[in-house]
Amino acid sequence: MKSKLTILSLALVCPAVMFSQVTQTTTSSAETTTMDTTPSYNSWSISFGGGIPLMQNADLRSIQNGNTLVGYSAYFSIDKALSHTFGLKLQYDRGETRQGYFNTKDAAPANAAANLQVAGRTQYDGISLIGDINLSNLLRRVDRKSDFRWAIHGYAGAGVLAYRAYQKDEFGQRLMTEKKPFKFNSLFGQAGAGLKYKISNRVDIEGRLMYVITGDDEFDGGGDQYSAVNRISSHTTDNFFNATLGLTVNLGKNANHIMWVDPLKDIYNKIDELETKVDNIQLCKSGDADNDGVCDDWDRQLDTPAGARVDGSGVALDVDMDGVIDLYDKCVTVPGPVENNGCPLNNTNNGAVSADETVMNGIEFDLNSDRILPSNNSILNSAVSYINSTNGSYVVVGATDTRGTESYNQALSQRRADNVKQYLISNGANSSKLEAQGNGKFDLKYPECNPASKCPEWKNRANRRVYFKAK
């Protein structure tokens, strides 16, 4: 129990536990243990795509008085995921915006000619470093039945911009502004969002909408800031929307990319593996004679029975303090005499927990899993002895938490019950005394956990259980 809580704490504090095999080396006079450090997920990818830029905030605009001028854009980026929620992109953008001012109905501004019709186009190149936040992983639902094919990403970054801006009017087309990159005044920024769909483990498709801030009043082709065109709207910085559709190709030898990992599920899957590895490491110089996880120097009970849960001083737990430790207590939460296995002599089950139901108290399951955890083997082995020592027949009942659909949870709870029944029979239980039954999401140990978001995770985990009841 204590080692599992310690491991879960380490997993929550150290995000690296979610994405790689943990390395831990302990050297003693007897042995050295080393764990694998091979990464579990890919973190590199490349992205490319194209789309349409529309000048939105400028003196010359792509949509003006019913007229629309459409340009083109393309991008290519090298992407590095730093965790399941955050990454960086080194991106190259190239494109051409097309914009104009068409004042054919109203009088032109006082500083422009009447019926002014001016068109502009801007060819641009940009290099930027962009931060990538996987909002879906950051705020991921935890029903665990989704295969995580959709993800919402947020982007923001800055870089350097180079462009050539042209203007076309009644005098023809001419180059108005040319700006080269790698100068302080060529900085620009962009931010936006994207919706990704995982086609396969290697390829994603994504639609993006980015807002590009040029920080420049001459980008639209209006000329210098005091020209007649650039005084159509005062103090206007030329910005535009860029809508694109593209592909992401994930690189690496592993099956999955880190940005498609469900972090919570990954933590729980690691706990049992880490617990097994930690148990194999010599942690106590004085030894642990009863193997209860408490070093003999601090252990107040050096002969704790195998499988018993203990407190911080190594004493076996007795929740109801009736003198029968929880390992042997058939009514863990109700006091009773030793001769009746810790249950009341006149137990009519009026609100009390029966011995049948508590013999398997604590058989819990990982989310979206029907695998029996190694830590439950000792409890199940005690259940085999209990079944064979009584005359009654029992139903092995499986249950789930409230995440997911009714049909999905019904099937999952049935698999859990079937697996426990098969384990008991394989370890000597009389098969004629057992029946498996799945109750789905409607058999909650903590009914207040509906929906699951109302409760802490330990209560939802307690709802994912298997227990006995008499036929």
UniProtKB/TrEMBL annotation:
Name under which the protein is recorded: OmpA-OmpF porin, OOP family
Has keyword tRNA-binding? no
- In this entry, which stretches build a coiled coil? none
Q: Which UniProt keywords apply?
A: Cell outer membrane, Ion transport, Membrane, Porin, Signal, Transmembrane, Transmembrane beta strand, Transport
Q: Topology versus the membrane, per the UniProt entry?
A: Multi-pass membrane protein
Per UniProt, subcellular location reads as: Cell outer membrane
Pfam families in UniProt: OmpA (PF00691)
